[in-house]
Design brief:
- This protein is mostly helical and 130 residues long.
- It is rod-shaped and about 105 Å long.
- A two-stranded parallel sheet has the order 1-2.
- The protein folds into 2 domains: 31 residues; 90 residues, Protein Binding, DinI Protein, Chain A (2-Layer Sandwich).
- Helix 2 packs antiparallel against helix 3 and helix 3 crosses helix 4.
- The protein is built from 4 helices and 2 strands, in the order αβααβα.
């Protein structure tokens, strides 16, 4: 067998083995594509602000003002918990819609704002976790 022919056979066998190893690796260790979803935090917080603003009355005593303040704090805790729950449900990273610069299509990054609002409206989330 000529030296050139043995080098070509060695090269072909090496490339085939390398391709087989790479294919096996990718089969057992698939590439993880990061998953994202967007949430419109601004709109959710704005709705809560509007709700609190409607409850403000002229001449409110300090107890009523304190109750509004506590409700606002509780909303922040519930919002954080809702975002955690949605992140776990979708197994993805959540991005604020305001931080999203550009998406190729509307379906590229799903909007889970509605799900966050649903969780916030659930009866079990009325009181903040202590």
């Amino acid at each position: 067998m000529s030296p050139l022919k043995s080098q070509i056979i060695t090269m072909v066998v090496t490339l085939m083995l390398g391709a087989g190893i790479a294919a096996s690796w990718l089969h057992f260790h698939p590439l993880e594509i990061p998953r994202f979803a967007k949430v419109d935090i601004g709109a959710i917080v704005f709705q809560q602000q509007q709700s609190l603003a409607q409850r403000v009355k002229p001449g409110m005593d300090s107890a009523e003002q304190g109750k509004l303040f506590e409700d606002a704090k509780a909303f922040g805790v519930r919002l954080d918990a809702a975002l955690d729950q949605v992140g776990k449900e979708c197994q993805c990273a959540l991005i604020n819609t305001a931080a999203l610069l550009k998406a190729t299509s509307a379906k590229a990054i799903p909007d889970l704002s509605v799900r966050v609002v649903e969780i916030l409206k659930q009866p079990g989330t009325d009181t903040p976790a202590q």
